[in-house]
Amino acid sequence: MSRLICVSNRVTPPSTKGAGSQGGLALALGAALRQYRGIWLGWSGHTTPEFTGQLTIQRTAGVTLATVDLEEQDVQEYYNGYANMTLWPLFHHRIDLTAYDRSFGSGYERVNRRFAEVLAPLIEPDDLIWVHDYHLIPLARELRKRGVKNPIGFFLHIPWPARQLLVTLPRHRQLVESLFEYDLVGFHTDEWLDAFHGYVAKEAGGQVLADGRVRAFGRTIRARAFPIGIDAEDFAAIAGSTTAKRSWERMIKSAQGRAMIVGVDRLDYSKGLEERFHGYERFLADNPDLQKHVFLLQIAPPTREDVEEYQEIRQRLEALTGRINGVFSDVDWAPIRYVNHAFRRDELAGVYRAARVGLVTPLRDGMNLVAKEYVAAQDPEDPGVLILSRFAGAARQMREALIVNPYSQEDLSDALKQGLAMPLEERVARWRALMGGVMRDDVVAWRNSFVDALTAVREAPLEELEGLAAPVEPRSFAPDPASAALGLPS
Q1: DSSP string of 437-465?
Q2: pLDDT of residue 27
Q3: Cα distance between residue 446 and residue 438, in whole Å
Q4: Per the count of CB atoms within 10 A, which of 153, 158, 336, 362 is most buried?
Q5: Rounded-to-integer distance, Cα 133 and Cα 489, Å
Q6: Rounded CA gap, 218 and 201, in Å?
Q7: Residue 81 CB burial class (10 angstroms; 0-12, 13-18, ≥19)
Q8: What pLDDT does 130 receive?
Q9: What is the helix (H) or strand (E) element at residue 482, kind and residue range?
Q10: Which residues are within 8 A (CB) of 487 and not within 5 positions of it... i.e. 6 or more apart?
């Protein structure tokens, strides 16, 4: 049987502390790697004075982990630079925050070469290779240069940007061309797949074939949407654990009969936290009779603290929290509880269950698994209400949520009022529909569909399919809703 080799920027070792301390993606990949006798390779998180390519290999919980140290210059240029100051803001439509620096691009290429150098000797002829996320887009190209002919797949965990923004990236054509060294490229949603098709047709002179294959740069690849999910059964079980119950009891006690609204997000400008706070402030002003009867718990663990934009957003949120609490608080009530550290998944499950409303309002996001975790944690007899941004990938699957425009304070205010007042019968009906989708489109279904599609590459090589499907005429690809909201031309 083929081995599966996963490659990502960082490696998450299987937890020895139980499922409550590990994310669903790590659990799903860990299960696949055990099934396929696989290897998970990535950066160790440590730096070395000089790159040697020395791998540290360990076997944990049935999974082989291979990690490599990078130089400090690598970290600054590849990780803090090109990945997090160039690609991340650009792919999230924050061109105003996008840094174009030639050294960043050089570091990005260098680290991808280094990953290929250490990975290539580990690859056996029957292996399948699955590369994850925007950090490693050129990796397949570097592996092909080293003679690797195995099926290689790539999955993008963040949105694909509108063509009108992607073309602002220096050497954007070379970046997209490197994706055509993969055999299979996956996106979260059809919307982002469509945006990729639009770039290929309009910028690369390529074709989208009738069977969904994409031809450009002298190669033909498969490109599909693979919506990711959570391990729904596992998370629902976690919600019934002792730790989750204690967390729920703690939140119910601290709420003192008030309705809790919860947000759980990394501290990132893409999550729309400032807009969320302004919308909540508008709700308080619009509904003085509900003041003192609700509060917002916002959990926002810091991330990428070496990047200046992330330091600034933390300062702005702290100031905004202080101002709103200063205006609306009373001696026995504060409208916002703002927490800057992470919690275990089982603790969060209890927090989710205690919340009358789950507020997930990113300005632009990948799938956003918090929305699905909130649904999976609910009490079926008395579920809360999910308010979800139309610009999260999950909005395409979770239409029974209250879908909002996160840029609109009025929209957020109205949705909060509706969610808090929603009768039990409607809450249960919406939750059942949402939970059905969360269970159906779970992380195992995502993992299996991608691996099956990658396996099919070996069984039916693309060269054998050439000419079997007639090309379709390049069509006019409409901008996605986020592009339209920004007024971008088609």
Answers
A1: HHHHT-HHHHHHHHHHHHHHHHHS-HHHH
A2: 66
A3: 12
A4: 362
A5: 27
A6: 14
A7: buried
A8: 96
A9: helix 481-485
A10: none
Mean confidence (pLDDT) of the chain = 90
Q: Is residue 81 within 8 Å of residue 57, measured between CB atoms?
A: no
What's the sign of the alpha-carbon dihedral 282, 288, 291, 294? Answer: negative
Burial 221-233 (b: 16+ CB within 10 A, else e): bbbbbbbbbbbbe
**Based on the number of CB atoms within 10 Å of its own CB, is 266 exposed (0-12), middle (13-18) or buried (19 or more)?**
middle
Active site residue 293: no
- Residue 485, pLDDT score: 53
Residue 213 half-sphere exposure, CB side, CA atoms within 13 Å? 22
365 catalytic per annotation: yes
Q: Is the pLDDT of residue 61 over 80?
A: no
User: Tokens in use for 359?
Assistant: 């507020």
Q: Of the residues 157, 172, 278, 286, which is catalytic?
A: 157
d(CA 349, CA 247): 8
At 378, the amino acid letter reads: Q
Which amino acid belongs to residue 174? Q
Strand partners, 131: 7, 154
Task: Determine how many CB atoms are found less than 10 A away from the CB of residue 410.
Answer: 13
- 155 by DSSP, 3-state: which? strand
Q: Which of 365, 411, 442, 480 is catalytic?
A: 365
Judged against a pLDDT cut of 60, whether residue 23 lies above it is answered with: no
| pLDDT at site 304 | 75
Domains of the chain: 4-229+445-485 (3.40.50.2000), 232-440 (3.40.50.2000)
* pLDDT tens, residue by residue, 113-142: 999 999 999 999 999 999 999 999 999 999
Q: Residue 40: beta bridge partners?
A: 6, 65
Burial of 63 (0-12, 13-18, 19+ CB in 10 A): buried
pLDDT of amino acid 21: 47
- pLDDT at residue 183, rounded to an integer: 97
The residue type of 407 is Y
- pTM (two decimals): 0.91
